[in-house]
Amino acid sequence: xxxxxxxxxxxxxxxxxxxxxxxxxxxxxxxxxxxxxxxxxxxxxxxxxxxxxxxxxxxxxxxxxxxxxxxxxxxxxxxxxxxxxxxxxxxxxxxxxxxxxxxxxxxxxxxxxxxxxxxxxxxxxxxxxxxxxxxxxxxxxxxxxxxxxxxxxxxxxxxxxxxxxxxxxxxxxxxxxxxxxxxxxxxxxxxxxxxxxxxxxxxxxxxxxxxxxxxxxxxxxxxxxxxxxxxxxxxxxxxxxxxxxxxxxxxxxxxx
Length: 256
What we know:
The chain is α+β, with helices and mostly antiparallel strands and about 260 residues long. It has helices at about 5-15, 25-35, 85-95, 110-120, 165, 170-185, 190-205, 205-210, 225-235; strands spanning about 20-25, 40-45, 55-60, 75-80, 105-110, 125-130, 140-145, 155-160, 215-220. The chain starts with 6 loop residues before the first helix and ends in a 20-residue tail after the last helix. The model has no long low-confidence stretch (mean pLDDT about 90).
């Protein structure tokens, strides 16, 4: 395992050979490919929870905050984990859909662990993150909405590899097959307790706390139509001039 500071760092790692596979959100992966970096998507992993599933993400404010609607966020500061990253893109799209110009909001980059403390201290007005990252702060905050639930399918996390690595053997294909089997096992209700035990070890949060919080879906296959919609969101937010052709980007073996 090679630690990276975010999606862009993971892309740099696979291109430099420091890692064979990089864990990257779908927007960052599309942007890197559109920029011209020779990468390919070899597997999906997490997608947003859509209705009727319970929201797994939220725009969180303090329990006693006067902010009650998207309109109240105009002129306010919202914490996200990465500027121009997935959480900012989806939150900006949600704001725009609710009549709030994203340019009227100040997005502040903070690590997930610092976001809720920043909300509770008043340093930022809101934070966009997953319920599973709240730790033990559930009682101190409330969510205005899940911006991901107002979108279609969004690839919150995927795996990418250098195009040259994919071409030189079958390791990327076997990796995707392993991720597919993992997704099947994690989606099997019989493994629910074990999955939260493993997640607890990673996030250092009690398994029972995580089990009580909504979770995103797990999906290894990649839906090209969903990726295309994500690219269009980036165009609408003026982050790209036009949608790239994503056909060469997603490997044949990873497609749904």
